[in-house]
Design a protein that fits this description.
There is one protein chain. This protein is mainly beta. The chain has no helices and six strands. The strands form two sheets. It has a four-stranded antiparallel sheet with strand order 2-1-3-5, with no helix packed on it. Strands 4-6 form a two-stranded antiparallel sheet. The protein starts with 5 loop residues before the first strand and ends with a strand. The model has no long low-confidence stretch (mean pLDDT 94).
Length: 71
Amino acid sequence: VPAGTEVGYRFAGETRLVYAAGDGTREFADAPLGDLVVIARAPGYAEATQPLRLLAGVAMEVILHLVPAAE
C-alpha cells in the first residue's frame, strides 16, 4: 500500500476521504445508502474509482487497484 493512501466515497457532490489502514483497508459503517462512488488515491498514483449502489442490510466489499500516474 503506497504511503499516504486515502480511501473513501463521493456522495451527493461531497467527498469523504480518510487514510487507509496499513493493509490498505477501511470500513465505512456510516456510508450513506444509495448511489455513490468509492475512491482510493495516493501521491504519485492515478485515482481509482468504482460506482456502487449501497443497499440497507447488505454488506459490500470493493477492491480498488492503484496504478502509477502517467507522467
